[in-house]
Design brief:
Elements: H1 2-17, E1 18-21, E2 25-31, E3 34-39, E4 43-46, E5 52-58, E6 62-65, E7 69-72, E8 78-89, H2 92-98, H3 102-121, H4 126-129, H5 134-148, E9 154-165, H6 168-240, H7 242-257
Antiparallel strand pairs: 1-4, 2-3, 2-5, 6-8, 7-8, 8-9
Helix pairs in contact: 3-5, 6-7
């Protein structure tokens, strides 16, 4: 029984004394709360059981999410900035002594980054922030943060703005202004359209009147030319046969006289007017 108890105690001591370090971790060994050494080599390691404890720290790139911050820019415009930072633990011992854990560094790093954001962006205009020149501003923020957290055992690799937006009251004012501008532009376009419509209609009416006048003039010219040609033909024909001319003239007289259906004539039947009807010529 004693052997079993001893073996069980030895097993628990051995289990508590062994720990494994992966390739993505650094380890700080503490004894009664005080750090005694740092383990950076991957593999199986041993510590004093029940006396020493192990604190693991990630060697990879870590992120810190920042709360939205309202900033007044260099051109006096106010915007909401949504940013984040990336850092790496370079000195596990300093990191443990300064902040204790990754959650602790977030608490310490958060106000530092927000303060630097507010300070640097206070000298930048909105147009610069929305262009490629914002990279220099971000680098300046990163350098300021690195300088402020030098004793934390970390290296701030990058600080980036994920999104910028206008405060709600500014957005409403801008939307109203944009609506007013669009309404004004619409009125101007409608007015120009009405004016252009009147010009087109007036031009079309003028061209139509000119075309009709020109057509009427051409018709009258053609009629006059036709009548002139007809008169020439008649004259030539009549000059060759006098009786035919008299006969034709008589028919034209009948045509004009009998144009109306209800025309009445009081003329002697043996007069010259009815010679053609009686077969006399």
């Amino acid at each position: 029984m004693k052997k079993i108890v001893f073996a069980a105690a030895a097993f628990f001591v051995l289990v508590d004394g062994l720990f494994t370090v992966s390739q993505i971790e650094n380890v700080v060994i503490t004894r009664l709360g005080e750090p005694v050494r740092v383990v950076k080599t991957p593999g199986l390691h041993f510590k004093i059981p029940f006396v020493e404890t192990v604190a693991f720290f990630d060697k990879r790139l870590l992120s810190v999410e920042l709360s939205a911050l309202e900033v007044t820019l260099g051109d006096k415009r106010r915007i909401m900035v949504d940013a984040f930072g990336r850092y790496r633990i370079t000195d596990p011992l300093k990191f443990y002594q300064a902040v204790g854990s990754e959650h602790g560094v977030l608490t310490r790093l958060h106000p530092v980054v927000l303060g630097s954001l507010s300070s640097v962006l206070g000298g930048v205009s909105l147009s610069s922030l929305l262009s490629d020149t914002r990279i220099s501003a971000m680098n300046k923020i990163r350098d300021e943060v690195n300088s402020a957290v030098k004793g934390f055992g970390i290296d701030v690799v990058d600080v980036r703005i994920r999104k910028t937006d206008l405060p709600s009251q500014n957005s409403e004012a801008i939307c109203k202004r944009m609506i007013s501008e669009r309404e004004r532009e619409a009125k101007e376009l409608r007015a120009k359209g009405v004016e252009l419509s009147k010009i087109i209609k007036s031009t079309a009416d003028k061209e139509n009147a000119i075309a009709i006048a020109q057509a009427d003039a051409k018709v009258q010219t053609l009629i006059a030319e036709g009548e002139l040609d007809a008169n020439k033909i008649y004259t030539e024909a009549f000059s060759k046969d006098k009786k035919f001319f008299e006969f034709f003239q008589t028919l034209e007289t009948y045509k004009k006289s009998f144009l109306e259906k209800n025309t009445s004539f009081v003329i002697a039947t043996d007069g010259p007017f009815f010679n053609v009807m009686r077969g006399r010529n």
